[in-house]
Amino acid sequence: MSDIDQKDDDASSPDRHALRRKQLQYSNEKENRRAVIFEEMETERSVADAKTAKLRAMRLAREAEEAKAAGETEPAPKKKRPIVINTH
């Protein structure tokens, strides 16, 4: 390697390091934003699930109360359909 090539490499080295640091910083910020978004999504999903469970319990209690008032026996619980996962 000649002296001229050596000087060019030394001159561009700080630029390269700065670019790498910027890219690494950008990647870290992007990953942090992504993690925050996923946490928010998980929190919203948990809140929605809790709300659904509460509403379901209230509906079932109301239906049982209405059935009792009408003199009927409690309705049999509905059978859940098996979950079918399509792998194709």
Describe the fold and architecture.
The radius of gyration is 31 Å and the shape is elongated. The protein has a domain of 48 residues. It contains one helix and no strands. The mean pLDDT is 84. By secondary structure, it is mainly alpha-helical.
Short overview:
This protein has a domain at 24-71. The longest helix has 67 residues, at 3-69. Helices cover 76% and strands 0% of the residues.
Average pLDDT rating: 84
Large-scale geometry: elongated
How large a portion of the residues is in β-strands, by DSSP E? under 5%
Biggest sheet architecture: none
Taken in chain order, the helices and strands follow as: H
| Contiguous runs where pLDDT drops below 50 for at least 5 residues | none
Number of helices: 1
Number of strands: 0
Helix % is over 70%
Evaluate the radius of gyration.
31 Å
Q: What's the N-to-C terminus distance? A: 57 Å
Q: Give the class from helix and strand content and strand pairing.
A: mainly alpha
Write the layout of secondary structure elements.
Blueprint: H1 3-69
Name a few traits of the molecule:
88 residues; elongated; 0% strand; mainly alpha; 1 helix
